[in-house]
Specification:
Blueprint: H1 2-17, H2 20-43, H3 48-94, H4 96-109, H5 114-125, H6 128-139, H7 149-166, H8 170-174, H9 181-199, H10 208-238
Helix pairs in contact: 2-3, 2-7, 2-9, 2-10, 3-4, 3-6, 3-7, 4-5, 9-10
């Protein structure tokens, strides 16, 4: 029972961890960019309806932009990995001794003695796919490809950006005419930044409090700068 539970947790960490960076980055960006729109409109003392119009327009436009950027970036990495894999496969099949020497050289650089280098290089080359993965990852720094990684990463980016970016708009959706609506938006934004940061602790070796405070601090500074810039620009334009 305990083994199955650990196995399930490992599978969960592996699957979710693959896209954790995409989710956190998109969520943080969604919160801050949407809050910047809210701050700018509030600074200009415009109608709250404009906050919703500009907020949702920004939410979908930036979300699509980030998702497409994530897709193209990951796709480029996958294409590079495919090309490198093809080159390495050609060397492995046409000049096995040269490939073995590359593996041996890498192992020597890691501090292994000649006896271990000989044993390990022979063991690595017994499995063609492992030999390719080993050199691509260890020597070239390229990760093993994940099926539909680019599409899944883009989907995670878009959904995370959309959900997190909606948070600063929630007060204006439910009580847009309230006197303290902007204060609620600030509080919601702060809580969202902390929650997104704390969620990382499930997949990294860091306390959820530390992870939350870290995200809150970094995002809070960025949000404060966005508010300041939005306010100054709004004042200049109004004048």
């Amino acid at each position: 029972m305990l083994y199955n539970e650990k196995k399930h947790m490992f599978w969960l960490y592996k699957k979710v961890g693959e896209f954790l960076k995409d989710a956190v980055y998109a969520a943080n960006d969604g919160i801050i960019t949407t809050f910047a729109v809210v701050a700018g409109v509030v600074g200009a003392s415009l109608d709250p309806v404009i906050i919703l119009v500009l907020g949702f327009a920004n939410l979908f436009a930036d979300g699509i932009s980030m998702a497409s950027g994530s897709y193209l970036g990951t796709k480029s990495e996958e294409d590079q990995c495919t090309q490198e894999r093809g080159r390495n496969l050609k060397v492995l099949r046409e000049n096995r001794e040269l490939y073995k020497e590359r593996v041996s050289k890498f192992l020597r650089n890691k501090g292994y003695g000649e006896i271990k280098v000989t044993e390990l290089s022979q063991l690595i080359l017994e499995n063609e796919q492992f030999a390719l993965d080993f050199m691509l990852h260890e020597d070239r720094g390229l990760c093993q490809q994940v099926e539909n990684r680019a599409f899944k990463g883009a989907a995670v980016t878009f959904v995370s950006f959309l959900i997190a970016g909606l948070v600063p708009l929630v007060p204006y959706i439910f009580f847009s005419n309230g006197a303290n609506t902007f204060i609620y938006a600030v509080l919601f934004t702060g809580v969202a930044l902390f929650v997104v940061g704390a969620a990382r602790s499930a997949f990294i070796e860091k306390s959820w409090i530390v992870a939350g405070v870290e995200m809150f601090s970094v995002g809070g500074v960025a949000a404060a700068i966005a508010y300041g810039i939005g306010y100054m620009v709004s004042v200049i334009v109004v004048r």
